[in-house]
């Protein structure tokens, strides 16, 4: 799947290809970036229902990139507090990757709205810096009343994020 947009949704970018599964390229790019400190463990956090998925992802990263990984299962009683860490953005989360279930209920603008949660300035799951280029594209689609034009901008958003 090349995007967050399911093939059954309007705005699915037909021409966009998924990233290839290329472990050698991933290792080379990670080494070139030189940003992962030797000896630092990468922490993957997830609620219990996604533990198997988190362990699969962690195993692939560990095998491909030779990075030590720890999977942390968030206890049910701490999910709300853990969610607030991400949503409120006041403190740095105690994990590097969060695997979490998310279902987008918007029907007409599913692609851009779903991405806003991860990349938008006010997105609940945005953990990195504000991305003003994304916010500009999102504003363009959020204010668009023509469905075809909104779909075209949604496809631009998908391409921008993949690039």
Structure explained in plain terms:
With 163 residues, the protein is mainly alpha-helical. The protein folds into 2 domains: 40-101, no CATH class; 104-163, no CATH class. It contains 6 helices and 3 strands. It has a 3-stranded parallel sheet with strand order 2-1-3, with helices on one face. The longest helix has 16 residues, at 147-162.
Please provide a brief summary of the model:
The chain has 163 residues and is mainly α. The protein has helices at residues 23-33, 51-65, 79-88, 110-119, 132-142, 147-162, and strands spanning 42-47, 69-74, 97-98. Helix 2 links the parallel strand 1 (42-47) and strand 2.
Essential attributes:
single chain; 163 residues; mainly alpha; three-stranded parallel β-sheet; 45% helix
Strand order of the largest sheet: 2-1-3
Task: Give the helix proportion (percent range).
Answer: 40-55%
Look at the structure and give the mean pLDDT.
82
C-alpha end-to-end distance? 15 Å
Number of domains: 2
Percent of residues in beta strands? 5-15%
Anisotropy-based shape? globular
H and E order: HEHEHEHHH
Blueprint of the fold:
Blueprint: H1 23-33, E1 42-47, H2 51-65, E2 69-74, H3 79-88, E3 97-98, H4 110-119, H5 132-142, H6 147-162
Parallel strand pairs: 1-2, 1-3
Helix pairs in contact: 4-5, 5-6
């Amino acid at each position: 799947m090349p995007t967050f947009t399911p093939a059954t949704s309007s705005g699915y970018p037909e021409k966009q290809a998924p990233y290839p599964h290329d472990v050698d390229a991933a290792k080379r790019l990670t080494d070139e970036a030189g940003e992962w400190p030797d000896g630092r463990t990468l922490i993957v956090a997830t609620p219990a229902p996604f533990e198997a998925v988190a362990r699969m992802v962690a195993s692939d990263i560990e095998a491909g990139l030779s990075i030590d990984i720890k999977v942390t299962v968030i206890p049910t009683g701490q999910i709300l507090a853990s969610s607030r860490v991400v949503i409120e953005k006041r403190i740095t989360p105690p994990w590097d990757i969060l695997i979490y279930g998310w279902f987008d209920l918007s029907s007409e603008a599913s692609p851009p709205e779903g991405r806003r949660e991860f990349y938008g300035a006010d997105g609940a799951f945005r953990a990195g810096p504000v991305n003003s280029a994304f916010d500009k594209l999102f504003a363009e689609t959020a204010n668009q009343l023509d469905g075809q034009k909104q779909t075209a901008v949604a496809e631009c958003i998908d391409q921008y994020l993949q690039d």
